[in-house]
Amino acid sequence: MKISLLGCGWLGLPLAKALLQQGHAVKGSTTQAKKLRSLRQEGIEPFWLQLAPDPTGIGWDYFLESEVLIINIPPRLERAGADFHPAQVTHLLPLVAASPIEKIVYVSSTSVYPELSRVVTEEDVQTPADAAAPSLVVAENHILKMPQDSLVLRMGGLMGYDRIPAKYVSGKQNLTTGELPVNYVHRDDAVGVLLRVIDRLQTPALWNQVFNVVAPGHPTRRQVYEASAKTGDFVVPTFAPSVPQPYKIVSCQKLTEQLQYPFIYGNPLDFFYSPA
Q1: Which of 3, 45, 180, 210 could pair with 152 in a Cys bridge, judged by C-beta atoms 3.0 to 4.6 Å apart?
Q2: What is the CATH number of the domain that holds 123?
């Protein structure tokens, strides 16, 4: 089928390659003109498009001539402000409504969950008032109200390959968050879940809901930093004595039950990395 992938970055590009391997025709967007040639070389039909927050670039109508739209654009809430990403989605959806798109998949984030010091599920955040990142839930709800079938995937912290947890804390001293649980997902599993969704397009019960995409294992940050430091030239950080702090453990039970997805990397301590 024809699949339009809005955002061919760190997650989107390997997803596009995997979709091509399955025989789908993929249209992929980038905000950087210099990447157009490399996308074409991979077999992706490239588009130079931006949501700033209104749509800019040439070819939006043709880009959206597909059966499926995957929206995979980083919200950049801290850099652009809380209202920017919902405005991007608000400007995009009229174009989608006028297109032949039948299914919409929106890549969101588990950052919507507040630190409730317990296991959290999809039902814990349904409105902006429930959320630690209200603007993301505003965007999610805009998409879920579309006439097309839609699906929201709240991704955990995306890790794997060159994204190595120890890299970001190498050599740091007296970290106070070492005993907090992580909510990570390996990029291979993020791609795998998205492929499984495409395989289940004709399963009506799957659509118009929200799924958490997080590895079922939740070791502590200390454990993850120490384990991932072995994959590269990283200095294991030191940790201050632990003090009680709020936390969250994001459940993937709904995903594993309804989508029946078997995680490749169920425990972040076993993630595969490839330092550059």
Answers
A1: 210
A2: 3.40.50.720
